[in-house]
């Protein structure tokens, strides 16, 4: 099961096994990229890998601006939706073999997708391995002070399928990125959200 497979009605949050409610910001999934997101996408040299792309709004925006991009998602529902919208998309886990490994200019981990798999350090190391020399990862994290760690979560109101997910506070991203092998990291905030740029 994935977020996109339960779009109707869409879940509004993840519930952790600790009782926490983690919002999903469903309103963004089909919206045009916000001004802050467009500024971030302008930092993404192609070709771009959009990890956990969902309905592929970032992939579509990049392609429309002339930047080669590919969305990747484990959800068949996500891939169907993205394909119907005209996005180039691949039904696959980021941890499986992908095209052009080591040649991607940048990778996106937005809308909480740094939590994929419950192991942000391992995920970032995998992303680094997909990038070419000089490539970068563009990552959305949570505000400083957010506890960083792994939880078991399920979609609130959509059954009892539990899966590992991670939260990463902005003040932990630098250390995580260094352990994953990135050479440099920078952070900024816009529209009440926190973003990071990790350079290979």
Question: Could you explain how this protein is built, in words?
Answer:
The structure is a single chain. The protein has 200 residues and is α/β, with parallel strands linked by helices. It has one domain (4-199): Vaccinia Virus protein VP39 (Rossmann fold), CATH 3.40.50.150. The protein is 21% helix and 31% strand. The protein has helices at 35-41, 57-64, 76-84, 120-130, 173-179; strands at 13-16, 21-23, 48-51, 69-73, 89-91, 104-109, 131-141, 149-155, 163-167, 184-190, 193-199. The protein starts with 12 loop residues before the first strand and ends with a strand. The relative contact order is 0.17.
> How far apart are the termini?
32 Å
Largest sheet, strands/sense/barrel:
7 strands, mixed
Q: Strand order within the widest sheet?
A: 5-4-3-6-7-11-10
Total of DSSP H or I helical runs spanning 4+ residues? 5
Structural class by secondary-structure content: alpha/beta
Shape: globular
Overall CATH class: Alpha Beta
Query: Quick one: how many beta strands?
Result: 11
The topology string of helices and strands comes to EEHEHEHEEHEEEHEE
Provide key terms for this protein:
Rossmann fold, single chain, 21% helix, four-stranded antiparallel β-sheet, seven-stranded mixed β-sheet, 200 residues
In short:
The protein has helices at 35-41, 57-64, 76-84, 120-130, 173-179, and strands at 13-16, 21-23, 48-51, 69-73, 89-91, 104-109, 131-141, 149-155, 163-167, 184-190, 193-199. It has one domain: Rossmann fold. It is an alpha/beta fold and 200 residues long.
């Amino acid at each position: 099961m994935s977020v996109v497979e339960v779009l109707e009605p869409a879940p509004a949050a993840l519930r952790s096994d600790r009782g926490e409610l983690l919002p999903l910001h469903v309103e963004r999934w089909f919206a045009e990229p916000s001004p802050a997101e467009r500024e971030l996408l302008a930092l993404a040299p192609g070709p771009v890998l959009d990890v956990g792309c969902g309905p592929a709004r970032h992939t579509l925006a990049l392609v429309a601006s002339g930047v080669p991009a590919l969305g990747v998602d484990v959800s068949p529902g996500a891939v169907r939706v993205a394909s119907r919208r005209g996005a180039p998309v691949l039904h696959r886990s980021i941890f499986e073999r992908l095209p052009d490994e080591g040649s991607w200019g940048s990778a996106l981990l937005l809308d909480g997708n740094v939590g994929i798999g419950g192991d942000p350090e391992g995920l970032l190391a995998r992303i680094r391995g997909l990038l070419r020399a000089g490539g970068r990862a563009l990552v959305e994290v949570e505000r400083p002070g957010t506890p960083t760690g792994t939880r078991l979560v399920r979609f609130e109101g959509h059954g009892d399928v539990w899966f590992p997910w991670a939260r990463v506070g902005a003040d932990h991203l630098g250390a995580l990125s260094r352990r994953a092998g990135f050479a440099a990291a920078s952070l900024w905030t816009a529209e009440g959200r926190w973003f990071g740029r990790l350079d290979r």
